Predict the 3D structure of the following.
Amino acid sequence: MATLKVKQVRSKIKCPKDQKRTLEALGLKRMNHVVEHTDSPSILGMIEKVKHLVSVEKL
């Protein structure tokens, strides 16, 4: 499985609670915070939900 580098590029202010919780579940706590995850269906689903707030890079 590939590794994904996920970076929060936009603020979660004024976002619905479910999107805020999704960012927290991904491990993103603040702007420009970067985390790495494996390429699994659950992670891809979470990224799809907040794709307007994050940038994704495959490693």
Observations:
- The chain has a mean pLDDT of 96.
- The radius of gyration is 10 Å.
- Strands lie at 3-8, 34-38, 54-58.
- The CA atoms of residues 16 and 37 lie 23 Å apart.
